[in-house]
Amino acid sequence: MATPSPITHVSDTARWVAIYRAMESERPDAIFRDPYARRLAGPRGEAIVRSMPKGRAMAWPMVVRTAVMDEIILRAIERDGLHTVVNLAAGLDTRPYRLPLPGGLRWIEVDFPDLLAYKKEQLAGEKPRCQLEPVAVDLTDRERRRELFDDAVSGGGGGTLVVTEGLLVYLAPDEVGRLADDLHAAGFGWWLIDLGSPALLKMLARSWGKNLAAGNAPFRFAPAEGTRFFASHGWAEAEYRSMWEESLRLKRTMPMAWLWNLIGKLYSKKKREEFRRFSGIVLLQRA
């Protein structure tokens, strides 16, 4: 008899990613430190990583994603004068506690009520560095999320950033389109996402597909047109960070990366760009 998946809901993936942040934080040469990650992940997070094929070996993309998003968020606050960040499906993210954020920054983190309650319990006694507002909202409730978005941008849309780290891949394309429309209609100025290609989804389906499907959390969104998917919804690519290039820069990459990098140089320019866009972190700007 097959062992039941420790992932039973998409929110359980937050514990999985928290273990990867803990693994990085415990390295002597860590590129970021999240002192709360292991506490938040708990034994269940470890169980999830153990259950996934190559679970620990595949930490590097999550580590790179975390580090790059940290950089973009901090730069946007300093350069673009952000006054509000809205983190949708925030999971067990601890940026309000661990990043050097301005005390006056408004940070709204949105997720399911039980996940936010668990997080509050685990972080009791810890003080966020900014004005943190946890908001329990089921993001499939479109009317409620529109109310949330309108409130978030009430002080001026240009200085607002929405973050959807590790969220879009679990949604159907039409769901992503409606979310993009609602964010644009509300007036957000910036949107930070991670985005994979169909080739990436196909690869992950071979390794993790059964586990995630059994846990009601299949990967679903990887548009063939890449960031052009968002153009008809009012968003333009402002910055694209290739996961592969960033992994080399940060020295957090897959085994034998040097060989793949060498082989890649033999490809045509078109193929190299396809490889570069295999997976990335994207900053979208309101068009």
Summarize, please.
This protein has 287 residues and is of the alpha/beta class.
List its traits.
Rossmann fold, globular, alpha/beta, 11 helices, 45% helix, seven-stranded mixed sheet, 287 residues, single chain
What does this structure look like?
This protein has one domain (58-208, 218-286): Vaccinia Virus protein VP39 (Rossmann fold, 3-Layer(aba) Sandwich), CATH 3.40.50. The chain contains eleven helices and seven strands. The protein has helices at 13-25, 37-51, 59-80, 95-98, 113-122, 142-152, 173-186, 198-214, 243-250, 257-264, 269-276, and strands spanning 84-88, 106-111, 131-136, 160-164, 190-196, 235-242, 279-286. It has a seven-stranded mixed beta sheet. It is globular, with a radius of gyration of 18 Å.
CATH-assigned fold name: Rossmann fold
Give the tally of β-strands: 7
Number of helices: 11
In terms of structural class, how would the helical and strand content be classed?
alpha/beta
Uncertain spans, ≥5 residues at pLDDT below 50? none
CATH class bucket: Alpha Beta
Task: Give the full name of the CATH homologous superfamily.
Answer: Vaccinia Virus protein VP39
